[in-house]
Write a structure and sequence with these properties.
The protein is of the alpha/beta class. It has one domain: Alpha-Beta Barrel (TIM Barrel). The chain has ten helices and eight strands. The protein has helices spanning about 30-35, 55-65, 75-80, 85-95, 120-130, 145-150, 165, 175-185, 200-215, 220-235, and strands spanning about 5-10, 25-30, 45-50, 70-75, 100-105, 135, 155-160, 190. The protein has an eight-stranded parallel β-sheet with strand order 1-2-3-4-5-6-7-8, sandwiched between helices. It is globular and about 50 Å long. The mean pLDDT is about 95.
């Protein structure tokens, strides 16, 4: 069965990447990393770039205008985004007029509580850009049910399973992810790893275990593992 990894970091190379895929969405959380490593992407891969709007928006625009960017990324902890920053971010995004999907990190982690993911911001973003896919990276982590039930009725929201399945596999949150996979719209749930922060084969193994436990038909499994993400990111391919 084909696999498209919707959430992948290439800086450490592929030596420890232990699953076969038909493509990956390579995420760059800094402009420097993009400039150094984006040439490593294969013809089967897509590329996503951090939306560094505070001081380097012109550089982001230049890279996007140059072609080859398939999505923009917002990461509250890396970018040090507090609640007070989100109105300005929305204004910058509106002026930027994005034509590609927007990925928003939604993995709660660490003691920097002032910079954790914001569910209200994701709602506002999805409503502001109803024609653009807004991808909830990591599905909210341990808060997956909160994110799922508040966002599921927004038709442009997609759920990215990366890292969370393997990270939470020995916790009560495992059941919550089964609920998301079972009841989420089959066209809006996507497999990813977040390599190198998780072992890809472990992430894939947990997903397949869940799918087996849910008696998931092969066509739905294929959609989550491959078709959904390939469709979302490839639809924004820039030559």
């Amino acid at each position: 069965m084909n696999v498209f990894d919707c959430h992948f970091h290439i800086e450490t190379g592929l030596e420890k990447y232990d699953i076969e895929t038909s493509g990956k969405n390579i995420i760059f959380n800094s402009i420097e990393s993009y400039r150094e490593h984006h040439s490593l992407a294969s013809k089967h891969d897509t590329v996503s770039l951090i939306f560094d709007y505070k001081e380097r928006l012109d550089e982001v625009k230049s890279i996007v205008d140059g072609g080859g960017i398939n999505a923009l990324k917002i990461h509250s902890r890396i970018q040090k985004l507090a609640e007070a920053d989100y109105p300005a971010l929305i204004e910058k995004m509106i002026a930027f007029d994005p034509k590609t999907p927007i990925i928003v990190d939604a993995f709660f982690f660490g003691d920097d509580l002032e910079f954790q993911p914001s569910l209200p911001f994701i709602v506002k973003l999805a409503r502001q850009f109803p024609e653009i896919p807004v991808i909830v990276a990591h599905c909210g982590g341990y808060d997956v049910m909160k994110f799922f039930y508040h966002l599921r009725k927004l038709p442009n929201i997609y759920f990215d399973l990366s890292i969370s399945l393997a990270y939470m596999r020995s916790t009560s949150v495992y059941a919550d992810f089964k609920n998301l996979i079972n009841f989420g719209e089959r066209g809006r749930v996507m497999f990813g790893t977040d390599y190198p922060y998780i072992v890809p084969s472990v992430q894939l193994g947990v997903f397949n275990q869940m799918a087996d436990e849910l008696n998931m038909p092969s066509e739905k499994r294929n959609e989550i593992l491959y078709t959904n993400a390939r469709s979302v990111f490839s639809s924004s391919l820039v030559s």
